[in-house]
Amino acid sequence: MVKQEYEIERLIDFIRFEEAYEQFYHYKNKEFAGIFTSARFRKNARNTYVTSRYYFKVKWLGFDRNSTTWEPEESIPSAVYLGQFKRLNNLEEHLEKIEVSFELKQKRGYCPLQDVQIVEKTADEPVNLSLFSPVLLDAVDNGRFGMVPIPAGENLNQSSFFFKLNSTYYFVKNAVYNTGTSDDVESLIKTFHHENKCFIQGYIRHENIVSMLDSFYNFDPSSGNVRISSVFEDCPQALRWKITNEGVNWKRMTFDVLKGLAYIHTHGIHQGISIDNILFGKNGQFKISHFNDFTFSKSIDAMNVKSVGVELAPRKYGLDNQFDFSVDIYALAIVALQCSESVLLVQRECNTLADIEEKISQAMENLPSDEDRHMIRMMLKARLLMHQGTGSYRFSAHSLSCWPVLYNSNMVSVECYFLKTMDATPIIDRAYYAPNDSVADVTNRFAAFYGCSLQTDYRMLCSTNFDPSCSADILSRHENFKAVVDNETTLGRKKFLIVPLLKPSVAPDHLMQKYVILYRQELGGFPIIIESPTLTPPELLTLLKREVVSEEYKLREMGLFAEELDNYEDDIPKYSENSFLLKITDLPENAIKSRLSTLEDIKKPLTGDLLRWTEIAGIHSLFGQKNAEPIVKRSRKRSSSCMN
Question: Which residue ranges does the record assign to the Protein kinase domain (predicted)?
Fold first, then answer.
């Protein structure tokens, strides 16, 4: 008997072996029964098996969607874009095999999987996603064997439409191009994928990203037209519809979208966040759609930034730095304001750019709390803050999704200055705290938000004013922070500052000395504190350059000078006798912008110089354009916005 060979057409989904084990044996999920068969795991005395860490759900060429199976990664050929699929889902790109012990037939009840050991890692060639362009099936084959075969009688010549298959709705979006002959079809599809990255929705598997379930093409030799069809999961409403008809909790929407952005920002920038491109899925979560302008790049030149509306286009802020993922963070802040106020800042409802700016300002003022306003303000100004020494982690989608304002209404906050490194901009942030939080709890949460080095400890200072002539106290890490804030003697007059404290070596407490470093050239009287065994000034300077100063300044010449503190009453000597003044001696004129003037910029309101509409990144002609997307209606309860 001749053994029949089968060919994998595409990858549908993935799961870790450990999760599949839990689903099948613990939760009795029969979807994964095909993984745990005696043919794959032949019984042995030790009940020990070696298998792939990941299993992939595959569709077989020439078979319909009811014939999908789960296969181990070691059986998946790279030709079906295995590397691209893994990378887009943030999986390690090498093949990983594990050794597991379990009983295939668990007659005595569920037994948790134990002693999972990695036994093999096989390195693969790195994948260049920017060159990724999948091969599509012809519509004829797709009609017979597609994951979502379109029923006969549907008019495929519509630019977009919904259809129903086995009680489930799907959404189809078509793109039509003209080509000479059938020989040009493959080249045209590659060009389409180069310009329109929505195809990656067919590979990304995340609960907050709309999935493309199928894609195929049709070539009409009589007209020379090629129609590329994309089939997406159905999401009942677009965010625009929910805002105008039901109202939306902006915090819930922001949290969901940030989770989706965190998943894709490792690969590139979305450039299409808007109330029309955020949909509400059947799983009860908001999802990101419209990957048409997604770019596999971590930076974009100002004139190449894309936006689906002028109100969503980020400001240049007068900086020369390229744009990055903060493009999406900025747009999401504008979307969040529209949710909170149910005011649509869309082109056809505003006659001038000034109208949009005024609505942004009004929406900010109408937010219910300082915490809400602060988060939106930080998102709008993320790029400005990132390029002034703060670092990108604080404003990453993942970090923003952890802000207490989004999920913990029991926390309150107080204004707090923060210095991540010696030469960083002093950022005005808010320190969140619960009634029982210690100073250490608040400080550690702050450091985690900024992605700070685990080798650097941070301490909180308290003062009436961070001026060289004012005193400052280092707060005890075990002190209750709420008690400090509510202290009647200084209530309303406190300023808090979090600074790095280094302990480069282990020594008994009685041998540790506190060193205070002032950097008045840029930071006014803000101190940096180092705790270490006795150091000479050269040793201290070496330590500073290695542990505190950020990379871009480490090659510059620095001088450390003993600081006379006789003129400062009750100042730094309150907690140290070892004070030095740091000077960067080889700075060209205006090489580093004054930190304090930058601080004043950050304090400015959202209107004014920082939001001049004449300095918008990307295409300026967006304003006034009408929405050319077709309106698709299916029922009164469904959104009229196109979904992709």
Answer: 134-406
Element (H, E) at 242: helix 239-245
Dump pLDDT digits (tens) for 108-160: 788 888 788 888 888 777 888 988 888 888 876 666 677 888 877 777 788 88
Rounded distance between C-alpha atoms, residue 158 and residue 620, angstroms = 31
**Nearest one of 92, 65, 262 to 166, comparing CA atoms:** 65
Token pair 């075990």 in the structure block, residue: 478
pLDDT tens-digit series, residues 498-557: 877 655 444 445 555 555 555 444 434 445 566 666 777 777 777 777 666 656 566 666
Which alpha helices (DSSP H) does 323-403 contain, by range? 326-341, 353-365, 370-380, 382-385, 397-401
- Token representation of residue 168: 């489930």
Q: Confirm whether 343 is domain-assigned.
A: no
Residues 123 and 141 in one domain: no
Question: Which domain does 209 fall in, by range?
Answer: 137-234
CB atoms within 10 A of CB 362: 12
Judged by DSSP in three states, 199 sits in helix
Q: What are phi and psi of 444, to 5 degrees?
A: -65, -35
For the chain, the helix, strand and coil percentages under 3-state DSSP, each to the nearest 5? 30, 25, 45
The predicted-structure confidence for 21-60, as pLDDT tens digits, reads as follows 999 999 999 999 999 999 999 888 888 999 999 999 999 9
Reading the block at residue 132, the tokens are 């990724």
| Residue 89 belongs to a domain | yes
- The residue out of 209, 234, 259 marking a domain boundary is 234
**Cβ contacts of 547 within 8 Å, gap of 6 or more:** 455, 456, 502, 504
